[in-house]
Amino acid sequence: MKPEKKYLDAFPDERRGWPLFWQSLRKVYSFSFFLGKRSKRSRLFAFLSFFPVLLSVFLRVEQAVTADASFDGLYFFNNAILLFALQFLILILAVFYGCSIGTEDLEAGTWAYLVTRPIPRTALVIGKYASSVVVMALMVGTGIVTSFLILNFERLGQIFIYGLLLKDLAVIFLGLMAYTAFFTFLGASIRRSIFFGLIFSFGWENVIQYFPGSTQRLAIIHYIKSLIPLPSTGRFSFLTFRLEPTRPLLAVVDLLGITIFFLTLASLLFTFKEPRVED
Amino acid sequence: MSLAVVTEHLSRWYGNVLGLSDVSLEIGPGITGLLGPNGAGKSTLLKLITGQIRPSLGRVTINGQPVTGRPELFFNIGYCPEQDAFFEGMTGFQFLYWMLRLHHFLAERAGLEAEKALRLVDLYDDRNRPIKSYSRGMRQRLKIAQAIAHDPEIMVLDEPLNGLDPLGKRKIIRLIRDYGREGRLVIVSSHVLPEIEALTRKIILIHQGKVFAQGDIHEIRDLIDRHPHVVSIRTPASRVLAAALIQQPFVVKAYFGDDEESLLVETKNRDQFFRFLLEMAAVKGIKLEEITSPDDNLQAVFDYLVGKG
To answer: How many A×B Cβ pairs under 8 Å?
Structure first.
């Protein structure tokens, strides 16, 4: 006997598609978030995401020991912490979370439980993607906000710094969205995607961004860096060396476009994914 | 609409390897047993029926609708996979709760239905234990619970009795038979003949990716019963037993195993043989330590039926 309508959130009707899709998306997101926040991987990466806090504490202690009066917390935050988060942390997180979205259930054998539910496969990918981005954003965001507060302790009364923090968090979130979408696609399309993802992250992305002219626009990091404060002349200026930024609004549109493009491709590929049959 | 799973000229290759070849079936309400040795193509067929994999040729319909790309069909389908895989960090209750949530049950209702299903498979008392601490049999029962928790009309159970202890097996067999009696469509696969016999008379024999025979189990049984069966008996009185057995017309031969206590008997009538064996044990007080039947593995039967035996 089919469960009665009153027991269900969604119920199929003649119009296939959207209502079931959105209901499914919510369910997959909640389920995946429940799993994600408790996973060993999240615990490990939460520890890594705490690194900016350790670095901030170290800088504070160094300042206290050397009694450096010229210490500028905002400068350190923008040029060391933020760039560490954007050039390393979100990349490594996105590689491991993104590549596993399309493969972990296939490899673990839990795939059958998911694809034999009244849930479109596209909703499975997008729901898992969304929960991964949120889990990563919470991890990175917690570390970033804490380190921001540590480094700008003297300025906590100045309202404008919170605007800067919000902007930086938004950039991190956009970066996570774009990278995770790309790695979701990579995970759905090739084997050993984590290996190739790491090569892409710390090879391609780290090299192409320093090419002059239009070539640097082939790296996702280019659009992310176009949204953060321009290169300083201080000791961290090498990190934004040769950046020829895209206009901020266009950079946001490009990042969203990259996200939608790769997520669509990943969803299409996922529709045709099959488990290995051991009969 | 009456329940029906229909496959039309269904074939599936894995590269150059044939998984299933030209399988056309019409399965209706009640329990249908899918029998075949390991590697016969049972899981491939069940994965095709549940839309997990796509056919290379042919098509599958459930209640008249093609299964691929129609997730709403799964409101009414329960699938128990063969593979022993779970979201290990969860408890039994959490697993069922979330499976029901993914079936679009409201949160409160999902909790109630999860508890109900856990009771049905005798896991209620262990509901808050992590799945990774469950025994093999408990994990198997949990897999069955997730397939039945949403009360589907169609159940596809891939080797559901694997790893269950005799008591658990009996309980699950009773449960599945009840579902069959209620008019639900249940497909159960197994490579163990007595398991399927205990469930249904309607069977499909599958071998090397092809449907080998289909129909009432008694017809198949007749074929199988002509096949001499080997029964292994472990008893301290192996010589006494061998002397008595060899005089019986239904015993083809009897020989000793590697040690003094194991006796292997080949019989052409299993029912008569077991009746006689139990009588001997009761009347002469012969202690039977272990009885196993290597031929219960269907591979031997199939080898016999296709002429290799």
So the answer is: 115
Q: CB distance from B108 to chain A under 8 Å?
A: no
* pLDDT tens profile B188-217: 999 888 888 889 989 999 988 999 888 887
Decide: B121 and B144 in contact? Cβ < 8 Å: yes
CA distance A115 to chain B (A): 7
> What torsion do the CA atoms of A254, A255, A256, A259 make, to the nearest 10 degrees?
120
Chain B residues within 8 A of A111 when measuring between CB atoms: 52
Angle between helices B270-284 and B238-245 (to 10 degrees): 130
Total Cβ atoms within 10 A of residue B56: 15
Q: What share of chain A is helix, strand, coil (3-state, %, to 5)?
A: 75, 0, 25
Looking at CA atoms only, how far is residue A87 from chain B in angstroms?
A: 32
DSSP class of residue B257?
Answer: -
The DSSP symbol for A277 reads P
Instruction: Please write the tens of the pLDDT for every residue from B78-111.
Output: 999 999 999 988 999 999 999 999 999 999 999 9
B148: which chain A residues are within 8 Å (Cβ-Cβ)? none
* DSSP output for A35-89: HHHHSHHHHHHHHHHTHHHHHHHHHHHHHHHHT-TT--HHHHIIIIIHHHIIIII
- Average pLDDT, stretch A169-186? 96
Provide mean pLDDT across the span A140-163.
Answer: 90
Instruction: Give chain B positions within 8 Å (CB) of A122.
Output: none
pLDDT, residue A82, reads 84
Secondary structure of residue B89 in the 3-state scheme: coil
pTM of the entire predicted model: 0.83
CB contact under 8 A, B105 and A9: yes
pLDDT digits (tens, 9 = 90+) for A94-126: 999 999 998 888 888 899 999 999 999 999 999
**Among the partner residues B42, B104, B146, nearest to A8 by beta-carbon distance:** B104
User: What ipTM does the predicted assembly reach?
Assistant: 0.86
> Closest partner residue to B43 among A30, A110, A279, by Cβ?
A279
Amino acid at residue number B224:
I
In the block, tokens 């010589």 appear at B239
Give the chain A residue nearest B83 (alpha carbons): A109
Query: What is the structure's pLDDT at A166?
Result: 93
